[in-house]
Amino acid sequence: MSELDRLKEQLAYLKFWQGIMVVTNISLVGWLVSTADGARALTVVLAIIGVIALTFGIVVLHRQIEHRINQIGRL
Q: How many CB atoms lie within 10 A of CB 72?
């Protein structure tokens, strides 16, 4: 497998997982908005921590995707 093909596969894989994380993050924020009043405090705190962790993960994946795109551009 050539270097270009390998980078393209890595890019596709990273984009797939970033998409899953974005959908999960949106769903979790939607849940917080709709049911935070009736949920236990611990559940809300854990959900907020989850949103923060997912957002951080999305940013990290975004940087890796940018890095792979730059690597492809240099080939």
A: 14
Contacts of residue 39, defined as CB under 8 A and 6 or more positions apart, other chains included, come to 47
Tens of pLDDT along 8-30? 999 999 999 999 999 999 999 99
User: Which phi and psi (to 5°) does residue 36 adopt?
Assistant: -65, -30
Q: What is the pTM of this model?
A: 0.88
List helix spans (H) across 1-75. 3-35, 41-74
Contact 21, 57 (CB under 8 A): yes
Whole-angstrom CA distances from 41 to 31, 45, 58, 59, 65 are: 14, 6, 26, 27, 36
- Token pair of 41, please? 């405090």
